[in-house]
Specification:
- Belongs to the NAD(P)-dependent epimerase/dehydratase family.
- Pathway: Carbohydrate metabolism; galactose metabolism.
- GO terms for molecular function: hydrolase activity; UDP-glucose 4-epimerase activity.
- Keywords: Carbohydrate metabolism, Hydrolase, Isomerase, NAD.
- The structure is a single chain.
- The chain has about 325 residues and is of the alpha/beta class.
- It folds into two domains: about 200 residues, Rossmann fold (3-Layer(aba) Sandwich); about 110 residues, UDP-galactose 4-epimerase, domain 1 (Alpha-Beta Complex).
- About 40% of the residues lie in helices and about 20% in strands.
- It is built from ten helices and 14 strands.
- Strands 3-2-1-4-5-6-11 form a seven-stranded parallel sheet, with helices on both faces.
- β5, α5 and β6 form a beta-alpha-beta unit.
- The two termini are about 35 Å apart.
- Bound molecules: nicotinamide-adenine-dinucleotide (NAD) and galactose-uridine-5'-diphosphate.
- The site of galactose-uridine-5'-diphosphate has 22 residues, from α6 and β8.
Length: about 325
């Protein structure tokens, strides 16, 4: 029997890569997305319902029309600085709308959920690697809105038959190696996308936020995970739940990191462009080093990353950025 899966936010960067892999794995996918940051052309499998999670009637209609075996919940607002300026929008979209979704799961008897959480729930961890048992002390409304969602899911899981996997993503980057999809997001703030834009002349320069961290070269270290490997983790999580696996919170990272200077050097190497780099002060709240302890996800889900090299992350991110450049107008909705 084909399993029908609801994917909220499936037209977005990460969700669209998962939707493509779900299609390849034989799942019947329904994407529910308001296309606020996502784009319809990124949905390469299944059906797209254009709807907002805040629109409870539309959401109920979607559940009523289908028979979902599981829900993968990606839809969210994701920009940290915006969450500081517009906190209520973040609690509404990330926390309240997750509640709407859980209500639908309750009403329609959906008992499997995979949720997109973030390493931002750890805040500024005092040491790395960061394991799942580290204290969760988010330092911005984005992280708090996601942590509150985790709590709702966990509480509802305790009170019902819901089994869930909460995946805490570290720094997601790269694109589909076959270049069918990638990150469309305009005005991106993530280092690798910003560096690729600088290399292609879409930005005049790149700023390094802080060169005085207690790291080998003074710049921040992060655990960059290829979006294709992250997508596979979702397929693994779904299979785990469908074969009776119990609820868990899992980090999603490789377990090693790269500094800002290392990333910049790699983007310069692959692009062949020596774009200007400005040494700027630290960004408020940026920790020195955030690297995932990733043994749990490997052990529990049997997750086997295929693209665990900065070369492949940067190469695909850069190729995608070039493609976006050349065919910009055709990507407009
Ligand atoms: N990109 C990262 O590095 C990263 C890191 C950690 C966690 N995450 C989480 O992963 C998830 C996906 O992030 P992304 O980078 O793909 O972002 P994205 O903005 O590309 O995707 C989010 C998708 O959700 C949709 N959406 C937003 N609000 C909605 C609503 N109210 N109703 C329906 N659809 C709505 C958007 O249109 C978009 O398609 C998010 O939950 C985010 O918090 C991302
Ligand atoms: O133009 C830039 C952009 C980033 N950085 C540096 O590059 C590193 C990575 O920064 P990103 O903005 O790419 O990502 P963050 O680590 O700040 O955080 C991101 O990944 C987290 C998961 O670890 C959360 O999901 C969070 O919401 C999301 O913004 C940091 O040291 C940052 O200071 C720069 O020097 N210049």
């Amino acid at each position: 029997m084909t399993h029908q899966i609801l994917v909220t936010g499936g037209a977005g960067y990460i969700g669209s890569h998962v939707v493509r892999q779900l299609g390849e794995a034989g799942y019947d996918v329904v994407v529910y997305d308001n296309c606020s940051t996502g784009v319809a052309i990124a949905v390469l499998s299944g059906k797209l319902v254009v709807g907002d999670l805040a629109d409870i009637e539309s959401l109920y209609r979607t559940f009523a029309k289908n028979k979902f075996a599981a829900v993968l919940h990606f839809a969210a607002s994701t920009v940290v600085a915006e969450s500081v300026a517009q906190p209520l929008d973040y609690y509404a979209n990330n926390t309240r709308n997750t509640l709407n979704l859980l209500r639908c799961c309750q009403t329609f008897g959906v008992k499997k959920l995979v949720f997109s959480s973030t390493a931002a729930v750890y805040g500024s961890p005092e040491e790395s690697p960061v394991s799942e048992s580290f204290p969760t002390i988010p330092i911005n409304p984005y992280g708090r809105s996601k942590l509150m969602s985790e709590w709702m899911i966990q509480d509802y899981g305790l009170a019902s038959e819901l089994q869930y996997i909460i995946l805490r993503y570290f720094n997601v980057a790269g694109a589909d190696p076959a270049m069918r999809i990638g990150q469309f997001t305009p005005n991106a703030t993530h280092l690798i996308k910003v560096a690729c834009e600088a290399a292609l002349g879409k930005r005049p320069s790149l700023s390094i936020f802080g060169t005085d961290f207690p790291t080998a070269d003074g710049t921040g270290i992060r655990d960059y995970i290829h979006v294709e490997d992250l997508a596979t983790a979702h397929i693994d999580a779904l299979r785990y739940l469908q074969t009776g696996g119990k609820s868990r919170v899992l980090n999603c990272g490789y377990g090693h990191g790269y500094s800002v200077r290392q990333v910049i050097a790699k983007v310069k190497e692959f692009s062949g462009v020596d774009f200007p780099v400005i040494e700027a002060p630290r960004r408020l709240g940026d920790p020195a080093c955030v690297v995932a302890a990733s043994d749990e996800i490997r052990k529990l889900l049997g997750w086997k990353p295929q693209y665990d090299r900065l070369d492949e992350i940067v190469e695909t991110a850069l190729e995608w950025e070039k493609k976006l450049n050349h065919t910009k107008s055709s990507f407009k909705e």
